[in-house]
Please model this.
Amino acid sequence: NAGVTQTPKFRVLKTGQSMTLLCAQDMNHEYMYWYRQDPGMGLRLIHYSVGEGTTAKGEVPDGYNVSRLKKQNFLLGLESAAPSQTSVYFCASSDRLGQFFGPGTRLTVL
Amino acid sequence: KQEVTQIPAALSVPEGENLVLNCSFTDSAIYNLQWFRQDPGKGLTSLLLIQSSQREQTSGRLNASLDKSSGRSTLYIAASQPGDSATYLCAVDSSYKLIFGSGTRLLVRP
Model:
């Protein structure tokens, strides 16, 4: 089992550009999440999904969109990147044993 | 609103010491509490999960306790080793959504 994987690992964008981060899990989990981690702010929930075809807003959803077309995939989109979105992004999936995290994507917006 | 606090923010100990990391939360209505380890530049690794009906969980040299009524959890690390150096995060699950503390940065000196 690969667990939770994220692509890409690193990305540099210019302000205004768009991109999509991909998260995939092979554990058949219903719940999936996107977090961002910033120095001094800890991990904050952006969006989450309780099953295929569903999405919901977390603590800091503005500027991001998500889609869960397949159970194993959860996509995070930035339509018009801003420097404030420079961060490390983590995807996670969960079952009754807890949440399991991917390795992260380091995004820099210039 | 659930808030999670971890004390201390940083800790430096000599190898071999037993140590305790603290986590407190403001709302006792939780499903579970999870402890994670994060190495620099890496993702989160789940260490222990305590269900709300449990008082403690053990894994090797790690023991986590939970007192819901007082809103506290502790992570006990026995016989610390330099390889234990990392940031330790606790997170409470109120409704399949994790709220994270800011972490305790641990350094175990050889």
